[in-house]
Design a protein that fits this description.
Elements (H helix, E strand, L loop, with lengths): L1 E6 L19 H23 L4 E6 L19 E2 L3 H8 L4 E7 L21 E4 L2 E3 L1 H12 L3 E7 H10 L4 E10 L2 E4 L2 H17 L14 E6 L3 H8 L5 E4 L2 E6 L2 H16 L3 H7 L5 H16 L13 H4 L7
Parallel strand pairs: 1-2, 1-4, 2-3, 4-7, 7-8
Antiparallel strand pairs: 5-6, 5-10, 8-9, 10-12, 11-12
Helix pairs in contact: 1-5, 6-7, 8-9
The site of zinc ion (ZN) has 4 residues, from loops.
């Protein structure tokens, strides 16, 4: 049995401030790398106990660049899939997926470090008239390839969010948010034990998980940014329509097109942050680190901007059913 683990950082046991998940803050991040590695190791042990024969780990936070998981401390025999080609290869014949250390979507008031893909952009993502977060995105990505996601770990808000989309998914709550930027964490020994046990339970009961339905194409994507300048830089991309100063939409024929349009939008919006980009290429320099710290602090210390209501009833859904031809 082949299982993929995708890890993020915000929902890891013991992580209680944003300074722990950003390398440019130095020591808090370096110490927290042990925390993420141990949560992933707990999931690995649990999956192995349930009969997983091949486990691939994707270090998802900031696309694993810089690395979050400490490769040398991962359970013996398990590889962190650092190359895109290795990830693409592994995903092809997976039987199940596990999400470790996830967080709730942008705008979730009781979600610890809640955001969608980029806290700096203050981005919210809608698909077919419904706001979605990184959990649903990852579950659907797996579903398109044909396997279910059986477990998610993180704060209480992400577990609630995941179950609202996918009621069967097993959740492990390792902390509760006290605000968007602080959390009350359960003891590490307890959460790691829970991650291990629930991973075993979920994989032993794999036959009870269905591959969830994916958003029906054409897929209508809404992107709402914190600032109009981010939306302006994305609006030049073919296919994007403007719905407001901070709000754009795009209609994709299928998932690959959606994926491409979304990644391109992220790249274009981030390119607005000239200082950030320039200094990222000089990672490690004190000035570069300072810029990144300033952007991150600003993003987390500002109030999350209000979100528009998306249309929940799509035109195509209220049209009479077309006869099959
Ligand atoms: Zn993250």
């Amino acid at each position: 049995m082949r299982v993929m683990i995708v890890s993020d950082f915000e929902g890891i046991s013991g992580v209680r401030t944003f300074r722990q998940v950003i390398k440019e803050f130095g020591r808090p991040f370096e110490k927290a790398r042990i925390l993420i590695t141990e949560d992933v190791n707990a999931a690995i042990r649990g999956l192995k106990a349930a009969g997983a024969t091949e486990i691939g780990v994707v270090d998802g936070h900031r696309w694993g660049n810089p690395p979050n998981i400490i490769d040398e401390k991962i359970e013996a025999g398990i590889t962190v899939l650092r190359e895109k080609s290795a990830r693409d290869n592994f995903i092809k014949s997976c039987d199940a997926q596990v999400l470790v250390g996830f967080h709730a979507m942008a705008g979730t008031k009781d979600g610890f470090l809640s955001h969608t893909s980029s806290s700096i952009l203050g981005l919210a993502l809608g698909l077919n008239g419904q706001y979605v977060g990184e959990t649903a995105w990852c579950v659907w990505k797996g579903a398109y390839t044909g396997f279910p996601t059986i477990m998610v770990t993180g704060d209480a808000a992400v577990v609630r969010e995941a179950k609202s989309f996918f009621p069967e998914i097993k959740g492990v709550t390792v902390k509760t948010a006290l605000s968007r930027t602080s959390a009350k964490c359960l003891p590490l020994e307890k959460t790691r034990r829970m991650i291990e046990d629930v991973a075993t339970y979920a994989l032993k009961n794999l036959s009870q998980f269905k591959v969830p339905e994916t958003p029906e194409p054409p897929i209508e994507m809404d992107l709402v940014f914190a600032s109009p300048s981010f939306a302006n830089s994305v609006a030049i991309m073919p296919g994007y329509r403007r719905k407001g100063d901070r709000w754009l939409s795009y209609t994709a024929k299928n998932w690959p097109e959606l994926n491409e349009a979304f990644s391109m939008a992220l790249r274009l919006a981030l390119s607005q942050l000239v200082n950030l980009q320039e200094n990222r290429s000089r990672v490690g320099s004190e000035q570069g680190n300072r810029y990144v710290r300033e952007f991150v602090c600003h993003a987390w210390e500002s109030e999350f901007p209000p979100l528009p209501e998306l249309k929940t009833c799509r035109e195509k859904q209220i049209q009479p059913k077309q006869p099959k031809l």
